[in-house]
Amino acid sequence: MRLLNAHTLEFKKVSDNKVPKYAILSHTWLDEEDEVSFHEFNQPDAIKKPGYQKIESFCELAIASGYSYVWIDTCCIDKASSAELSEAINSMFRWYERSAVCFAYLPDVSEASEHLLAEFEYSRWFTRGWTLQELLAPKLVLFVGANWKVFGNRDSLAYPISSITRIESRYLTSRAAELHYRASDKPYYDAGEGHFERMDKIHAATVAEKLSWAATRETTRSEDIAYCLLGLCEVNMPLLYGEGSNAFLRLQEAIIRQKFDPTLFAWNVVIENEEGQRTLRPEKPVPSSKWKSAGKVLLGIDNPWRHRNGDEFRLLNFTCPKILAPSPLCFSGCTDYINMQVSLDWDLTSRGFSISLPASMNTNPCMLLPCHRKDDPWHLIGIPLDSYPGGLFDRAAAPIDYQMAWGANGLIEGSISHYFGY
User: Does residue 237 lie in a domain region?
Assistant: First the structure.
């Protein structure tokens, strides 16, 4: 890791076990030619760039806050070295988490403005892909306006941030901090317990929920919408600039190899509307046949994911990438899924993805995922499928809501109640 001495403006390489306390900068980039790279930093003309003035202002703020070292993504990474760039991007979430404080610089917010909250809500900082991990990973995030003065922190602004980002406040602040700011405007400093509590919740969130946080965010390079999610999804993978949208498919495959999460398949369908904006489209598949035993898991009578029940439990073979989402946008609205604690047989190879799940046998098959909405365990998630010769399947449409209900014979039965994506 390469840090910048805030007093001398000299770089210092440090090993993982000898990292001094440092402040880290979160910001939206200017035009790339206005930022100062590692190789430009000591050049005579660098001082003329707006990016250099930003570095100087940040260093002054860090010194005033008691920090001698800083890390800034524009100049502390040698991007000419593909190995160093790959290491930095795969390690960046951890670097933000290990920082003593993260200053989020929002140049489009004036802390002296009477419309501060309105400017805060529409800040460009909330639209960028890289700033997602910069919001979530650090122990302490202080928001800085155009004049480099702190106007709030992640804990005190948790509810406005939650409204802006659609990230639940429990992922942004601890219970202790929340109670403190209900009664006081004074800054709150926790001893670290709150950070670990919050990070445990983030790590426990489903993959669909994590990816939904990036659904409306953008990156300059198409590959970066996947690379900026590596730390949040707790995976590592090599960078291949030039692969385009395939990077997001590789991210999902890396997630599956690390730990399969069924909500990864519960994504929505995206189209272009008349205004050219991408929206979610509800599909209307033919209702599948009923699985009488599938719902018994909810009453503890039977578990179809552990006990094979005749033809209801099928081995499904998918070709990649058809089973995977093409973009984080497909996970819009996928924030409230919970996985059931079941055992699944699955395998991911170069030929595709194979998994055993309860599945209907009719002309328009549907597979049942072991996950449901947080507030309603009686609605499981069904995925309509297209079947092909040779026992192969592709994802056919948006998820459907599979409602469990009592049948006339007293057994649990299933029926399609409504479609996701509206």
Answer: no
pTM over 0.70: yes
Owning domain of residue 94 = 2-153
Last-in-domain residue among 116, 138, 153: 153
Residue type, 10: E
Q: pLDDT by residue (tens digit) across 158-187?
A: 999 999 999 999 999 999 898 898 888 888
pLDDT single digits (tens) 227-264: 999 999 999 999 999 999 999 999 999 999 988 899 99
Given the structure tokens 């409230």, which residue do they identify? 336
Asked if residues 70 and 6 have their Cβ atoms less than 8 Å apart, the reply is yes
User: What's the domain count of the chain?
Assistant: 2
Judge whether 106 lies within some domain.
yes
Do you know the residue count of the chain? 422
Spatial separation of the C-alpha atoms in residues 249 and 73, rounded to whole Å: 25
Q: How far is CA 184 from CA 49, 111, 156, 161, 181, in A?
A: 41, 20, 10, 19, 5
CA distance to 49, 55, 57, per residue, from 61 (Å): 19, 10, 6
